[in-house]
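Supplementary Methods, section 5.1.

A reviewer requested that the exact input to the structure prediction be made available. We therefore reproduce it here, unchanged from the version used in the analyses.
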Amino acid sequence: EFERARSHEFRRSVGEFLKNLSDRSIRAHLVIAGVASDLEDLLEPGAIVPRNVLAIEVPKMTGAEIEELIHNGEGVANLTFEKDVIDAIIHSSNGLPYLANLLCQQVGLTALAAGRMSVTAEDMPRAMSEVLTEITSRISKPMRQGLAARVRDGTPAILGRLASLAQTSGGRLTPEDIKAAFPEPGAGAAA
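The structure derived from this sequence is encoded token-by-token as follows.
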């Protein structure tokens, strides 16, 4: 999870290292895994990415793959997840392994804090709250302030629709996606 590296100097150094390898035509294969909108943001915002560095977008996981992930975690953590919790995690994660792992971690910790080895639906609200706190902490301060301003000015329904649309589209919205989500009044009505 490269994006978790807090040191800008470290991230900049990795970017420089990649550039030096490229400049010297050194044949090497390196894998840097992380979550970001693009490769530049993963390394360091504004970083110059060498031409021979390839970003590989990982496709969303299927429900079956998320369920397998959960069952693997059950075995390692010696926890049991109820079927409705598994279904809720599959639905809430929308195929994103990061969200699935974060939800599993938080719901498992919630059950353990309650002294149980079985994860139940009653553990979900607290786990979801913890996940939202974690995700919010990853959003830049200016973005959080902008979101708060939009909530204050009465546009949370629009934000919710856009957030839902962004999650189901893998975070990329086209003008067509937005037009489809917000049709103009009277569009499609019979003349």
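The CA atoms of residues 89 and 147 lie 25 Å apart. These observations are discussed further in the main text.
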